[in-house]
Amino acid sequence: MEQFESVVNFFMYLGVTVPLVGLGLLFFNLVTPYNEFRLIRDAGDVTDPVKAAAGKAAAYDLGGKLIGQVLVLASAVYHSLGLVDLIVWGLIGIAFQILIFYLFELLTPFKVLAEIPRGNVSVGIFSFCLSLASGLLMASLISY
What we know:
144 residues; mainly alpha; elongated
């Protein structure tokens, strides 16, 4: 019977974390002036090197947000007292990733929001690293 409870628990937590990941990607896509998914999709146009580079930059940027958010959620699952606690930490993680992105925008001499759709892959990679580092930091800060 204990194994059955563990399986039920697994699916309950999975049923909360997967939508939170989707929600985070949706929110991030909504707060940027460009559509990351469209940039990634359009990168398949090999006749346009700018589109290809913009898609690559967006994929790095969005991939970093995804990994950073999942790190926070993994820590929240481990440390949470229940599903509500997990949801709260998940939403905080989403907000934190968005905040870090806009701090990156504010503190750099260039405009991140303009560089990614222009195909500046270096900015996308740095944004990836920033999201990964901030997600890891936040994940380590969740404790009781």
